[in-house]
C-alpha cells in the first residue's frame, strides 16, 4: 500500500473537509463562525446583535450586506481610513468578512434615538425632496423613502445621530473618500442645520 | 518684505487642502478650441452606444439621478434641472458622456455621473428608460408675450435640425426641445450663443450669434410649448 507523503495527506484531509461542509451545513457553519467573531471582536462596540448603544459606533443590524462587505474590505485595504476599524479589519479573512456582512444584515434592528425632535420636519423635507437651491438631491432616491437603502447604498434608518453627523462631516471635509464621491458632494452642499436635521430624521425612521 | 508676504500668502493659498478635489470636473477641449469637431465620440460613449440597453435595469440605475430629476423624469422648472422624460437615448448618453469627460461644464451634476457611481452600460440603460417615459406637458413656460416672434426665429434657425415640432433627431444626437423647461432652454440657448456650453454644435452657435437676450427668451418660450405627437 502506497504511503501518502505528509503534504499529500494534508491536501486529502483538506479536500474531505471541503466536501463535508458543502451546502446548508456550510451556511450554518458560516453563520456560527460569523457569530463567534462578532461576539469576540465586534460586540464590544457594535452590540451583540449589531444594535450598538454608544452613539459614536454605527448600528449594523439590518444593514445592507453589499455595503457592509464593501466597508470591511475598504477598512482592511485602508481605502476607508479609520484608526479603530483599520487594525481590526486587517485581521479578518475574505471569508470572515463575507460571513460577518451576512450576519449583521440578518440581525433585527431596534428603533433609533432622536436627540432633537424640533429638527425632524426640516430633516424629513430634505430627506424626501432635497434642496434644489443648493443642488442637494433627495436622500430618499438612493437610500429609499423608508431609509432601508439597497445594495451599495447603506441603510440609514434608525442610525445614531452622532454617527451620521460625524460621517457627513467626514464626507464634507474630504476625509471619508471611499465608496461614493456622491456623498462628498452632497454633504459639502448641506448646511450645518440641514446636516443635523437629516441625521435626526434618519434616527427617527423605524 | 513685500515679496516675502506675497510668497507667504501664495503658499497658504496653495497649501489649503482642496476639499472638493475628489469630485472636481475635468476639463476637455470644446468649442473654444481651434479645430473643435462636434460630437467626436470617445471610448466611454462608444461603449454606452454599443450596449444593448435594458430599460428595466435603467429604472434601477436611475436612482442616482432621481434625487434631482424626479421619479417621472420631469426635472424641476425653477432649479433648471432639465426635463428628461421622452428625450432621445442617444442625446442623454452624449450629454452625460460630455459631462463625464469635461466637454460640457456641469460641476453640479458631475459627482453624480462619474464611473464610480454609474458605468457606461448603466448610462445606456438609464437613457433607454428615460426615452420610454411619457413627456409631461406640465413643464415650465415663459410669459407667452412673444410667441409669434419665437415661432419665426425657431422656424428660420432651429427647425432644420431640431424638427418642426421640436422632436430632435436621435440618429444625429440632436435633442428634443419640445416640452423642455423654459428656464433651462433659455439658459442653454444663451450659454450656447456665448460659447459657455462648450459641447454645442458650431452650426448652432453660428445661428445664435445675432440673437439678443429677448430673442433667446422668445424662442425658448416657443420651444417649451411645442409638443411631439405620441410622446405624451
Structure explained in plain terms:
The complex is a heterodimer of chains A (206) and B (232). Chain A contains 10 helices and no strands. With 206 residues, chain A is an all-alpha fold. Chain A folds into 2 domains: 23-105, Cytochrome c-like domain (Cytochrome Bc1 Complex, Chain D, domain 2), CATH 1.10.760; 117-204, Cytochrome c-like domain (Cytochrome Bc1 Complex, Chain D, domain 2, Orthogonal Bundle). The N and C termini of chain A lie far apart (66 Å). The model of chain A is unreliable at 6-21 (pLDDT under 50). Chain B has 232 residues and is mostly helical. Chain B has 2 domains: 43-132, Orthogonal Bundle (Cytochrome Bc1 Complex, Chain D, domain 2), CATH 1.10.760.10; 147-224, Cytochrome Bc1 Complex, Chain D, domain 2, CATH 1.10.760.10. Chain B is built from 10 helices and no strands. Chain B has helices spanning 2-15, 43-50, 55-61, 63-69, 89-101, 120-132, 147-162, 182-193, 202-208, 213-224. In chain B, α2 (43-50) packs antiparallel against α5 (89-101), α2 crosses α6 and α8 (182-193) crosses α10. The longest helix of chain B is centred in the middle third of the chain and has 16 residues, at 147-162. Chain B starts with a helix and ends in an 8-residue tail after the last helix. Chain A binds chain B through residues 130, 132-133, 135, 137-142, 153, 172-174, 177, 180-182, 184-186, 188, and chain B through 17-23, 63-68, 76, 78-79, 81, 108, 111-112, 114, 116-117.
Amino acid at each position: 500500500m502506497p504511503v501518502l507523503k505528509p503534504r499529500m495527506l494534508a491536501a486529502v484531509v483538506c479536500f474531505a473537509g471541503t466536501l463535508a461542509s458543502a451546502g446548508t451545513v456550510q451556511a450554518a457553519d458560516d453563520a456560527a463562525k460569523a457569530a463567534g467573531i462578532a461576539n469576540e471582536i465586534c460586540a464590544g462596540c457594535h452590540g451583540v446583535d449589531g444594535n450598538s448603544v454608544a452613539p459614536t459606533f454605527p448600528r449594523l443590524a439590518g444593514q445592507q450586506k453589499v455595503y457592509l462587505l464593501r466597508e470591511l474590505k475598504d477598512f482592511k485595504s485602508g481605502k476607508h481610513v479609520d484608526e479603530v476599524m483599520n487594525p481590526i479589519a486587517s485581521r479578518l479573512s475574505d471569508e470572515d468578512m463575507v460571513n460577518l456582512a451576512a450576519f449583521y444584515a440578518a440581525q433585527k434592528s431596534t428603533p433609533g434615538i432622536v436627540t432633537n425632535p424640533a429638527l425632524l420636519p426640516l430633516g424629513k423635507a430634505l430627506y424626501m425632496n432635497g434642496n434644489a437651491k443648493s443642488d442637494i438631491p433627495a436622500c430618499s432616491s438612493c437610500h429609499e423613502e423608508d431609509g432601508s437603502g439597497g445594495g451599495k447604498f447603506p441603510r440609514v434608518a434608525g442610525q445614531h445621530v452622532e454617527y451620521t453627523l460625524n460621517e457627513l462631516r467626514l464626507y464634507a471635509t474630504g476625509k471619508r473618500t471611499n465608496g461614493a464621491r456622491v456623498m462628498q458632494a452632497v454633504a459639502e452642499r448641506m448646511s450645518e442645520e440641514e446636516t443635523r436635521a437629516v441625521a435626526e430624521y434618519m434616527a427617527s425612521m423605524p | 518684505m513685500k515679496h516675502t508676504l506675497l510668497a507667504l500668502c501664495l503658499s497658504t493659498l496653495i497649501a489649503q487642502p482642496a476639499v472638493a478635489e475628489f469630485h472636481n470636473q475635468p476639463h476637455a477641449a470644446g468649442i473654444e478650441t481651434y479645430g473643435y469637431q462636434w460630437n467626436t465620440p470617445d471610448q466611454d460613449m462608444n461603449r454606452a452606444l454599443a450596449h444593448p440597453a435594458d430599460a428595466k435595469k435603467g429604472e434601477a440605475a436611475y436612482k442616482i439621478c432621481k434625487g434631482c430629476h424626479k421619479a417621472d423624469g420631469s426635472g424641476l422648472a425653477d432649479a433648471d434641472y432639465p426635463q428628461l422624460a421622452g428625450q432621445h437615448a442617444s442625446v442623454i448618453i452624449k450629454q452625460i458622456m460630455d459631462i463625464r469627460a469635461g466637454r460640457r461644464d456641469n460641476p453640479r451634476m458631475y459627482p453624480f455621473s462619474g464611473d464610480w457611481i454609474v458605468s457606461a452600460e448603466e448610462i445606456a440603460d438609464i437613457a433607454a428608460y428615460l426615452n420610454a417615459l411619457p413627456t409631461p406637458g406640465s413643464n415650465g413656460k415663459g410669459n407667452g408675450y412673444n410667441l409669434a416672434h419665437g415661432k419665426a426665429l425657431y422656424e428660420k434657425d432651429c427647425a432644420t435640425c431640431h424638427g418642426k415640432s421640436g422632436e430632435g433627431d436621435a440618429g444625429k444626437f440632436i435633442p428634443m426641445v419640445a416640452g423642455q423647461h423654459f428656464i433651462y432652454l433659455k439658459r442653454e440657448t444663451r450659454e450656447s450663443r456665448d460659447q459657455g456650453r462648450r459641447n454645442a454644435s458650431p452650426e448652432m452657435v453660428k445661428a445664435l450669434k445675432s440673437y439678443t437676450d429677448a430673442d433667446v427668451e422668445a424662442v425658448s418660450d416657443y420651444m417649451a410649448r411645442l409638443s411631439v405627437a405620441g410622446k405624451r
